[in-house]
Amino acid sequence: MLIKIASSNIRKNFSFYKLYIVSLTIIISMYVTFQSFAHDTIMLSKISQDGRVETISNTINIFFIGFVIFFMLYFNNFFIKKTSKELGIYSLLGFSKKKISLLLIYESIIITISSFLFSIFAGSILYIFINKALFTILEINDASLNQIINKTAVFNSFILILIMTLTIVISNIYELKKLTLINLVNYSKNKEKVIKNRPFVGVVGFLLLIIGYSLSINIINLQESIWVKIGYQPVALFVLCSTVLGTIIVIRYSVSLVLSKIRENKNILYAKISNIVIPRFIYRMNSKSKILIVVTLLVSGTVTMLSCQLLTNHYTLKANERINPSAIEYTLNNKDINSNVNKLSSTYNFNSSETEILQLKADSKDKIPYEYTKKQNHSFDVISYSDFKDLLKNQGNTYNFKKLKSGEGIFINYYPNDESLNQEYKLKLGNKNKFKTIKVVENTVSNSISFQNSIATLVVPDIDYNNMNLDDSIQRKTVFSLNGKGLRDNKEFYNEIHKVIKGTDKGFASSYARNSSIKEANVSTDLLLLFITVLLFITTGNMLYFTNLVETLNVKDEYFILSKMGYSFKMIKKIIRREIALMYIIPLILGILNGFFALICYRYMLVDTLIGNLQILKLPLIYTIAIFGTIYLIFYLITINSCKKTILEARVI
């Protein structure tokens, strides 16, 4: 009998229950897709050789389940309120709380099973497209989809549904147990518990965020930072706790405090839109703060993950531009090889540069730089100012070095530092007792020759270079550099040159080959992080969309009252836009701030300082805000449109 009543309730109120079913189906579909990826043995065998994908997948499972359970509890609380009158009538008809609890359990089971079946189909279909796309992108031709429906993914999703159902059942029993009959009937009309203004707590929230952000910036000081003096792990843990706790307190208390202060401004409050939006938002801050906290943490995680992934990829490309500044380099000084290489210039339109490097030892009393000691054969690689300038120009790099005087030099650092600045080096010129002293007047990280072929490079004036080069006993080597527009990532150009060189040259360096090897090594992690980022995008948007839709349904009677008070539909639409904007803007601002400072920590904790400092964050941050902002805006517009339709369909105006 109870099962029939539960089924009948769902059928009669399907327009009401469909929100629950659709939101649940979307979230579980994402989970099924993710699990299908994480347990596709054929795909993993192609992209994961070190177990990183499996480890990250298992970690994400825990966080995802936590977010889903919270989201479902939030929704369930709303649905209990909406059905409270109906449950009260059942109680008046003689239904015990046990029977009412069973009725809710049956409804939950029917809804979750329906969502589960839909999500298996939708998630599996989505993964088929993703699988095909991955095989195409990675150029994997000797593999195919393991199975249309991944049994492990289905089983794990069933476990998730089971956990969610049990959680909801326990929550419902707990709520019903503490309600009397009269409270059950009036449950939907219960007053919202208004958050009391606590200025001290609100200020503490801001202070915690400021402390977390300040410590994040402090890492820029490197060896002088608190991170080095105390230790990276304890400081990172403190920053994480301070930021998360500060975010929670700011949303819980500081936002309502700020809005209360705004409400005290009569010019702002006594306006047709503000006198509805601000008081109502403050009044419902208790329930809204919970979803705002979760969404803000999701936004923070999404922004952090996306920006860190973009930074890693951007850093890899920038680092390769330094490590291999030319498209191709080789050291085989053979006339036939050089002739065959030059024959390809008409096809690929490249510039060929020849740089002779003098390998000169410094006097033992000199304070030699770090790069000098790391060479197998301790020496400076000395090149002429003209060769240096011409190479940079051919590589498309900006040249802004001052002209050198005799006895001056530019030292090329591997890591950015001023260790050799203003140092004088007494260079021995061959076997004869001749020396030339060079003073370093400028340091740079703009190397023109790959580190494979030259390290501890010293640029000297042409006149000094020519005088040094007179002695035949000086050790030297020649580097040939090939550059041209679009050749750094040209596979065909690399293959043609490699055929000529035939892989016998230890000094052969290719920008394309290095980029390809890095991409192959990191493809599994990049794909998984991209997949997780998309998952977080959809989860965040889904939460905001359905939360606002549910809130609009919850207050539709209030819009009816506003229409009777003379508010036009145009004004009501503005009220809806403002209220939804607050729900979107608060997580967006805090999430981007949290993600930005997390990106700074990631930059200095895990990314090498080989390329620049904070300047390298510019592009990843711009792309992150652009991508996230666009997707966020799309969800915002969809949410507004759906909420407007909901009000129209409810015929309250």
Automatic annotation (TrEMBL):
Chief localisation class: membrane
Compartments, record wording: Cell membrane
InterPro entries reported in the protein's UniProt record: ABC-4_Integral_Memb_Prot, ABC3_permease_C, ABC_permease_BceB-typ
Transmembrane segments: 20-38, 58-79, 100-130, 153-174, 199-220, 232-255, 291-312, 527-546, 580-605, 617-638
PANTHER family noted in UniProt: ABC TRANSPORTER PERMEASE, ABC TRANSPORTER PERMEASE-RELATED-RELATED
Family of this protein: Belongs to the ABC-4 integral membrane protein family.
Name of this protein: ABC transporter permease
Native species: Romboutsia sedimentorum
